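Sample log: RidA family protein.
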Amino acid sequence: MRRATAPRPDAVVSQDADVFKGVTALSVTEISTDKDSGASSGLETLLPEGWPKPRGYANGMAGEGRIVLTGGQVGWTPDGVFSPDFIEQVRQTLENVVKVVEAAGGRAEHIGRLTWYVTDIEAYRNSLKDLGPAYRSVLGRHFPSMAVVQVLSLVEPEAKVEIEGTAIIPKG
């Protein structure tokens, strides 16, 4: 998830340009769909005017519906087993986030935000080539807004990554 080099405005982006003196946003309808059914996510990807389109994440997402907040999920299987491999832990962690969203009646494409906590940012950076296929195996080409933060450690000693998700399940 390479960050764009465009300067960031100090104000929150709004679709109501009068609110923030000249700060406007181009709101592009999210084109991500469920990788199996082809159903639309119901979310909009927000791209402030003049900013380059990010690759592998969104600057912001908007939607209406039931909000689902996951707790921090780690990369263990339902049996509580961790793989020693960083990429496999990420894949399992993403699956665990999606399972929580599914328990609320949602799907992967309803996820509007992911916050990643990694214990080794260099392992994350050095694995980007392998991370893409693992990510897409769970979320397809749906790229919500994301942040990646390095932390000293996680509660589970074997965990290398923990991910929190926020989903918006459309009404109806």
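Observation: Residues 17-62 form one domain.
Observation: The CA atoms of residues 41 and 130 lie 26 Å apart.
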